[in-house]
Amino acid sequence: MSDFFNDVYEVVMLIPKGRVTSYGAIAKYLGSAQSSRLVGYAMNAAHTHSKKIPAHRVVNRNGVLTGKHHFPSQNYMQLKLEKEGIKVVKDQIVDFKILFWDPVKEISL
Predict the structure, then answer these.
(1) Does the predicted model carry a pTM greater than 0.85?
(2) Exposed e or buried b per residue across 8-29, where buried means at least 16 C-beta atoms within 10 angstroms of its C-beta
(3) Distance from chain centroid for Cα 37
(4) DSSP code at position 31
(5) Do 42 and 4 contact (CB within 8 A), yes or no?
(6) Contacts (Cβ under 8 Å, ≥6 apart) of 109
(7) Which parts of the chain have pLDDT scores under 70?
(8) pLDDT for 50
(9) What are the pLDDT digits (tens) for 12-21?
(10) Taking every pair of C-alpha atoms in the chain, what is the biggest distance, in angstroms?
(11) CB 58 within 8 A of CB 26
């Protein structure tokens, strides 16, 4: 597993329950703003990691559940988010801007 993937997982494990972030926000925090797609690849592979990675809390920049196809079922990601109090309508997080967790602002270096 790449160091970049492990760095992504470390950030994702810091996202609080009931909050979400984007692939791009993680990439920016890691100093590689152009690598949001690579963050997505890391999320797709998260199920192979030895720790439980809350990949369901990472969505696209508009709050859309674009990674839902990489979970055990089509509605798994939505169900996990709703269990944390996040409302999802038509595969998009309601109040995304309010629930958005920005690692650049939230993680102290």
Answers:
(1) yes
(2) bbebbeebeeebbbbbbbbbbb
(3) 12
(4) T
(5) yes
(6) none
(7) 1, 109
(8) 86
(9) 999 999 999 9
(10) 36
(11) yes
